[in-house]
User: What shape does this take?
Amino acid sequence: MWVDVVRGEPLSFETLLDELQTARVIYLGEQHTLTRHHEMQNAILDGLARRGVPLVLAMEQFEFMAQPALDRFNAGTTDLNQLINEADWAKRWRGHTNYHSLMQTARRRDIPVLALNARSETIRTVGRQSLTNITAEQRAELPGDIVTNDPPYEQLLTRILGVHMAFNPEKLRPIVEAQIA
Assistant: This one.
């Protein structure tokens, strides 16, 4: 069942698609390991494509350096298995198999896929050292303008990370910067 959280009312999947098809950007969050979240994402992507909505699928599950491999996949010159190998996806995103049906829908519906994420090595360095202490080469991999002043997000991360016994609140700032980057 779908629920409109603003009105607090149930809505049909087709009504959901009616509302989504006019949006310029749609963010679909998930718990990475929950199959029903991936099924929902796939249903929305397929449903909007079926209606002729022009789409681009932008994924954090690919690091920017995988874009050439994604471009070959988007062009139809490689298949999913080749993409997985060329992008080193199994190493770079442990739960990559959760996204295979989404990728197959994108291929079947001719929806281009974009890589959104920075290299994991760079993000780990930001998390340990902060944005101001990374190398110029690492900084060049990230967006030029990164707004790190986000008190609600910082508060959320504090709550999430606070459950870990090893959490040190004094080291939160670089972690916030890494998550934003």
Observations:
- The first strand starts at residue 2 and ends at 4.
